[in-house]
Amino acid sequence: MLVKVCSVSNSGLKTIGIEVEVNVASRGLPALEIVGLPSKAVAESKERVKTAIVNSQLSFPQRRIIINLAPADVPKEGSCYDLPIAVGILSSGLECGLPQRSLFFGELSLDGSLRHTKGALLLALFAKENDFVNVFVPKASANEAAIVKGVNVYPVESLNQLIKHFSGLIQIMPTEYRESSQDKFDAEFNMSEVLGQEQAKRALEISAAGGHNFLMVGSPGAGKTMLARALPGILPPLSEKESLEVTKIFSASGRIPPEGSLVRTRPFRAPHHTVSQVGLTGGGTKPQPGEISLAHRGVLFLDEFNEFPRSVLEALRQPMEDGRLTISRSQQRVEYPARFILAASANPCPCGYLDHPKRACLCTEREIEKYRKRVSGPLLDRIDLHIKVPVVDIEELARFEPLKKRQTTSDEIRVRVIQARQVQQERFSEDGIHTNAEMKNKQIAKYCVLSKPVKQLLVQAGQKFHLSARSYYKMVKVARTIADLDKSDEINIAHMAEALQYRLRIKL
Fold it and tell me: What's the whole-model pTM score?
């Protein structure tokens, strides 16, 4: 008897249909074999499935069973094939057939219950795109799959429950999507807690409003890390489209918790400077998303920028330009999105006290030169805002009285950022982009028309400071963001002058 059960295979964010063909032979010694390029986890499923069926007090056929995962030339990874394999084996004992246009997906425990399985959202999206009506997934993964409307998502607790549902003894009702109680990201610091540093705060507001990368350089204790960790508090919430993009990455990497829902807060990733190139960009034998993809539509914070290996930093160049990363291996090619705000902070020299007003630098010229060469010119050219964070004087901190001098809060800045983002959302409604930082030359020519005085200022600055063509256009984008914060339709000289002051590259 041959039974075909439909499932899927996830490779990165790409999903392809898989037919689980189960053949229960009438002759031959009892055996269970799986073919079709199964991985170790898939090959081990025969022991999980057999034990789960027996422990569920169901009849396991004492016959020769061959399972083919088709197409046979596509590598199969993960434990999600346990449920379709078990359903295929047990279907021979059902009086009624399996429901048509249905997908089965999930990992079995040895007692017959189903475990939370990564990739349920990708399964549901595939089902909707390919006209499947029903998906059967573990109960813990059902809410994640129910994000997709127009597909019946059945939450399955155990094999026993599913077989009784097929036999008509009980009825499993399709799950309704429930939004998890998620507030906006609770940033580690509030902008009001950062004393002084008004220029740096302004630069971070511009970065959040337009999605621009920035680099902060200053001596230890100046507040660079505190400023970066306050950034999530001024970022706008994810739009529906952005939220789905982020949730797909988290689903593929298994970062959606049981009963999880759409990711509503922007990611904030802060890897240590000992991170490997694969850890940062993604990859491995079975390509997984790295930190830059997990930071998609959010922030990638690289503290101690110069301490990262140069080879690791150089791997950022192409994703920063294209907003995506392609990982190629001998057997597969995976593409992950990587549109993030790079927030970097660095010391001016190894000891950190170069140009400090009160402390002498202990580094030699050779040490400083070697330290600076860890970050290449092409990488710095891709960073929009270069910010010098000066030392805050201790006496100034002691004189500060918070009850008399009120500091601007993150919520107040966030309101201005959201208003600027709404302007950009309307502007780019037909262009498929979200922020000014994503503009290509075509959009710059359309939305950033410069008057003659403004263009003359930009040209003079470009000639004096030897700006590259990339830097020229980045300044136009930053000026456009400043104009949006100023609620201005046109870019005037004040907007361009402010943008240019963030482009005077700091010695690093």
Answer: 0.92
